[in-house]
């Protein structure tokens, strides 16, 4: 197996010995016929295609549906490692919810001078329409996907707190299904914590946040932009798994102060709307007037306690890349504790000193758009050509406040199966967190995304990345 | 159930039914063209007419030749009724209503789409046509099998079946209507050798040639063929059979929802009229007039169902 220098490999460590969490897997692997592994790999692809687990790529006319490549080598995390991550994630998510409540109410954190006022006031992700609104149950971020990267045995960093509508959980679930289907014997040998309760927990968690107007058992629906959305598969998958209706904007309207869906028997009220539509499209009367994806008047119903919107509108202010660098302060401010999970050191290009440093070191840094996602519009310095860097320099100088920069982290690697056998590739991890008034549930593991090209650090599925099943060992 | 979901199911199964019917039409047309080259052009024209796409076809082509007709009816994306167009539309509907389908039905539909996408990616030669048509029929049979084997018998199933039988009734009526002149009793019928191949083709278009022969051994005449296809309650593609099913499924919905709607009031008399008709009374009225009225009523019923169950807002 080839080895990249100074990169922590989660299977082989730095010393090249198989690390503890992978030992059982390694034993199994040694007895496996490589040809069988390749057959299984091909079979898993056929399985995904037949099941229709696809995502749509924007900006392509034909063959818009693609499979996210799936790698059959699991990514393994020990129970002890996970327990630590879990505590850190929970702390962070609690702080984010406290921050959101505060920022839309008394703004104590601004009064205390811990975050510059202009960072909030001038931020598109801050929704003035949410000022003074208290979401049912006090929960803002019902679903969070905390992106983590690892650089060493004990070094985990939070890359992003996805507090709007994080996607990918259906892949986490289907990846496990696929592995169980392909390698049942492996799961008899290695005790892996189950992820299959996620849809049930999601349903319960959303139900626990039912609005005051709810009578009886909460009716949950998933709001999708429609079959052409890149994550449509996931929307229908989650609705199906939860036993909830999958609705689009034109199925909904306001009826007697409630949001109701058009059924074959008439209009039925919805209590909790798990929306996979961005804030801006939620209500043409309040936000983007052109939107066909939302429901006219839903914000009024929301403010009057007629419906729960998950996640709450305006949560984007918490996962904004400009706010990101303040999260350790946010954690401390609201919990009184030091943040357990580290942030990646971040230069805010809005600050002149930081900008100067970033411009001098573009070749070494990762520069991201403050409002970007999906790996679009970012510069990975070490992988970029001179020309790309100089073009980016112009963009950055024109609107420095639009960007933050971070060092290029030596992301850990995990082996994938290639034609030539196992080879290390860089990975990240997105655990999924469910927040209800009573509890925070974190599914053991999450979605591991993997760059398929040797040396590449870009793991986004929209940029050709793949996924792996993620195991947390039962210990 | 969402109105949109009911509509999605209804159309998904209409489209699947249509793909199968188009395949069957082509099969019957191809057989005539093979055996009687002089009648080929007429036969292809009637196939195109039965599929209801004469206008878009003649916009594109000047002549009715096998190669063009096959391509137009199987693969042409500009023809909204081509097999590929309807399979693609069926799958899009299936994606839209996926939460209402069992995994088996979804996977069968997806598999059907994947198979036909591959199969219809390049022009089909006459040599390969029988095999391709066989695959189309087989794929849609797999979806139907999954539907019957795994779905709950509830409103979801009722809407799927309503789509199937409204489409099928329309298709059967069109086949007869396009060929009605072949079936009309005329002077030339007595003692002359009427066009057996044409009759055969009508039966073949509704997969009924063997059933007909089995039920009417040694005897074949146009009136009995028309009677069989319109009025025989045992033939799953006959008009009376389709309407029995439509009335049944609407009845289940009525019972289930506790609501009698306009579509119920419309469907029952259509079935009643079919049941009370004899082939003689139909011919007295005029076969073409009878079928035209039926096609109109059938279309109106489809629209009423759409409205009564709020398929669109």
Features:
heterodimer; A: 475 residues; alpha+beta; Rossmann fold; Dna Ligase, domain 1; 5-stranded mixed beta sheet; 23 strands; globular; B: 313 residues; mainly alpha; 2 domains; 16 helices; 74% helix
Describe this structure in words.
The complex is a heterodimer of chains A (475) and B (313). With 475 residues, chain A is an alpha+beta fold. Among the domains of chain A are: 212-306, Rossmann fold; 345-408, Dna Ligase, domain 1 (2-Layer Sandwich). Helix content of chain A is 32%, strand content 23%. In chain A, the strands form six sheets. A five-stranded mixed beta sheet of chain A has the order 3-23-22-19-18. In chain A, strand 1 and strand 2 (65-67) form a beta hairpin. Chain B is mainly alpha-helical. Helix content of chain B is 74%, strand content 0%. The two termini of chain B are 14 Å apart. Chain B is built from 16 helices and no strands. The A-B interface holds A 49-52, 227, 232, 236, 239-240, 244-248, 250-251, 253, 261-266 and B 1-6, 92, 95-96, 98-99, 103, 106-107, 110-111, 114, 155, 257, 259, 309-310, 313.
Fill in the CATH topology of one domain in chain A: Rossmann fold
* Pair of chains with the largest interface and how many residues each contributes: A-B, 23 and 23 residues
Second CATH tier, the architecture of one domain in chain A: 3-Layer(aba) Sandwich
pLDDT average of chain B, as an integer? 91
> Which CATH class of one domain in chain A?
Alpha Beta
Biggest sheet details of chain A: 5 strands, mixed
| Secondary structure tally, helices of chain A | 16
Q: Cα-atom Rg of chain B, whole angstroms? A: 19 Å
For the largest beta-sheet of chain B, the strand count, sense and barrel status come to: none
Oligomer: heterodimer
Shape of chain A: globular
Average pLDDT, all residues of chain A:
92
Uncertain spans of chain B: 190-194
Question: In terms of structural class, how would the helical and strand content of chain A be classed?
Answer: alpha+beta
* Helical fraction of chain B: over 70%
The computed structural class of chain B is mainly alpha
Give start-end ranges of low-pLDDT stretches of chain A.
Answer: 59-63
Strand segment tally of chain A:
23
Distance between the termini of chain B: 14 Å
What sequence of helices (H) and strands (E) makes up the elements of chain B? HHHHHHHHHHHHHHHH
Integer tally of domains of chain B = 2
